[in-house]
Design brief:
Layout: H1 44-53, E1 67-76, E2 95-104, E3 119-127, E4 130-137, H2 150-157, H3 168-177, H4 182-189, E5 203-204, E6 209-212, E7 218-227, H5 236-245, H6 249-259, E8 265-274, E9 300-309, H7 314-319, E10 332-333, H8 338-354, H9 433-442, H10 445-459, H11 465-479, H12 481-491
Antiparallel strand pairs: 1-2, 1-9, 2-3, 3-4, 5-7, 6-7, 6-10, 7-8, 8-9
Helix pairs in contact: 2-3, 3-11, 4-9, 10-12, 11-12
The structure holds NADPH dihydro-nicotinamide-adenine-dinucleotide phosphate and protoporphyrin IX containing FE.
The site of protoporphyrin IX containing FE (HEM) has 28 residues, from strand 2, strand 3, strand 4 and helix 8.
């Protein structure tokens, strides 16, 4: 591995060529009519160079823009065949190559890595039955539980349409009018909202998925990737100071750790719920704003992910990497979690927009196994089927789908009217129970002090008085009366639960 920023020296560089491979005479001087004359249109190399330059960007991801990543492997450490027939998980010791992209959510490409934010945790497993993408976050829950609210949520975290400025007022307006966000905002406002490095945080599927074994038995599952480096966070003050010192602190840290062979690793632990439990579990298990308490569903260690290879080309391997929630492999599928179902549309759509309909042919996105289907042509396609049939059914040996072996993962729903409505509430479904437990039973006194300080600072940055009051009375006091009182006190207000 070369040291960062160092390049190999060479006294025999090749001659520059055009993109067509034709040697060119100069990378310094445009073709002109004499030293003072006009630049000539016939300078095809200059025109190619400028025209290519202005097309260097592809559209950003709509959010999760600033990130970094690395390649590595996943190794199975426990027999999970009783729960899933996924081929890449079918043997203890089996290794699958993978890619991880870790990102922050709201900021653009130049944004400081240590801003208070959720971190994305997107994984691509290059399995023998196609690419499996697990696109999670470093938090076990999320801000909203219905995809209909997702664009509004993201808009509230971005920039104001008139000024182009970030706005805490907009963020708290949305959050306090969306009580289901209270659990995630409690995590975000804790020191877990400012992880020390990407290596020092966990990754969670957050969403609930389905596993299915070879006998067709189904289970509901949540993924927990537990950092083997240990959880470490920055205080708000440390994170703010780092924003001034190094914008790329997290991206740099991951790259440098791998370059010095200090390969970060995560233990995969699963929560596994029998299919039948979902109906009357005390929390709706498909509501992404809730966790499954460990005492009900303890985590089961099943594997280990190690990142051991840095990208050689950041644009080709990290910017153009496309993770798609709809990329399940046999043995893994979606669940009635509405966010999963909404997400299954959005990611492929984004990649078709960002890199085009043939994005899956880019080396970073293509599976290691062979692709056989009837898609053809389109921009930048270079896999061609020759004289093989381009339609199904056909008589000429084109690929055939096997409905018996590869049935869609499924579940049963009761006959019901088609409607727009909330999830059916389970016994303990309340937006404030779990964040309250986190505050009272999980956080240490220091964690609680930091939480209060972080909330107060965040609420003091341009948030209107009536929204501050709503944050205290309709939000934090409902998470915990003591928390509401402390936030109110430090803001110079008085709490009263409404
Ligand atoms: P447990 O006491 O069994 O689990 C609490 C978990 O919280 C820990 O295992 C740890 O999970 C995580 N944690 C520890 N310290 C902090 C912190 N300062 N900030 C945020 N998370 C922390 O209780 P329950 O399973 O009953 O959960 C209680 C609450 O803990 C939940 O309401 C939720 O807010 C939070 N939590 C629960 C998780 C779950 O899947 N059950 C996962 C993470 C948080 P980890 O090892 O994943 O870091
Ligand atoms: C990226 C949509 C919810 C985690 C993206 C992208 C889209 C999107 C369009 C860009 C994809 C690309 O161009 O490659 C949505 C929608 C959601 C949703 C519509 C809700 C319905 C979530 C949730 C999580 C999540 C709940 C975490 C559990 C991520 C991550 C990325 C991402 C980590 C970055 C992936 C990468 O590194 O390339 N999302 N998202 N999203 N999303 Fe979501």
């Amino acid at each position: 591995m070369k040291e960062e920023g160092k390049r190999e020296l060479s006294d025999q560089p090749p001659n520059t060529t055009t993109d067509a491979g034709i040697p060119v005479p100069s990378d310094e001087h445009s073709l002109t009519t004499g030293p003072a004359g006009p630049v000539l249109l016939q300078d095809a190399y200059l025109i190619e160079k400028l025209a290519h330059f202005v097309r260097e960007r592809v559209p950003d991801r709509v959010y999760h823009v600033k990130g970094g990543g690395a390649f590595g492997y996943f190794e199975v450490t426990a027999d999970v065949t009783q729960w899933t027939k996924a081929a890449f998980l079918n043997q203890v010791g089996k290794r699958t190559p993978m890619l991880a992209r870790i990102s922050s959510v709201a900021g653009e490409e130049g944004y400081p890595d240590t801003d208070r934010d959720v971190r994305g945790f997107a994984l691509k497993f290059y399995t023998e039955e196609g690419n499996y993408d697990m696109v999670g976050n470093n938090t076990p829950v999320f801000f909203v539980r219905d995809p209909m609210k997702f664009p509004d949520f993201i808009h509230s975290q971005e920039r104001m349409p008139d000024s182009g400025l970030r706005s805490n007022n907009m963020q708290w307006d949305f959050w306090t009018l969306s009580p289901e966000s209270a659990h995630q905002v409690t995590v975000l406002m804790s020191d877990r909202g400012t992880p020390r490095t990407w290596r020092n945080m966990n990754g969670y599927s957050s969403d609930t998925y389905m596993w299915e074994n070879a006998a067709g038995e189904k289970f509901w599952v949540k993924y927990h990737f537990k950092t083997e480096q240990g959880i470490e966070n920055m205080t708000d003050a440390e994170a703010r100071a780092m924003r001034a010192e190094d914008l790329d602190y997290h991206r740099r840290d991951l790259r440098e750790a791998i370059a010095r062979n200090d390969h970060p690793s995560w233990r995969l632990e699963m929560q596994i719920m029998p299919y039948e439990d979902a109906a009357d579990y005390r929390f709706n298990p498909f509501d992404i704003t809730k966790v499954w308490p460990h005492e009900d569903y303890p985590t089961i260690p099943i594997g280990r992910m190690v990142l051991d290879r840095n990208p050689e080309n950041f644009f080709a391997q990290i910017v153009q990497a496309g993770f798609d929630v709809a990329n399940f492999v046999p043995g893994i599928g979606p669940s009635p979690d509405r966010m999963v179902l909404g997400r299954m549309f959005a990611y492929g759509d984004s990649q078709r927009y960002r890199t085009g309909p043939n994005y899956a042919q880019l080396p970073v996105n293509r599976p290691f196994n062979e692709v056989h289907n009837y898609n053809k042509d389109g921009p930048m396609r270079y896999d061609h089927t020759g004289n093989r049939p381009v339609y199904a059914p056909n008589s000429y040996g084109g690929p055939k789908a096997d409905p018996q072996r590869y049935r869609d993962p499924s579940w049963f729903v009761e006959a019901a009217e088609i409607m727009r409505t909330a999830y059916v509430a389970h016994k303990d479904d309340n937006d404030f129970i779990q964040p309250g437990t986190l505050y009272r039973q999980v956080m240490s006194p220091t964690d609680r002090d930091h939480l209060v300080g972080n909330i107060v600072w965040h609420l003091s940055q341009g948030v209107e008085r009536f929204i501050q009051e709503r944050a205290i009375n309709d939000y934090w006091s409902k998470v915990d009366p003591d928390l509401g009182t402390r936030v109110a006190h430090d803001l110079g207000l008085v709490a009263s639960v409404r």
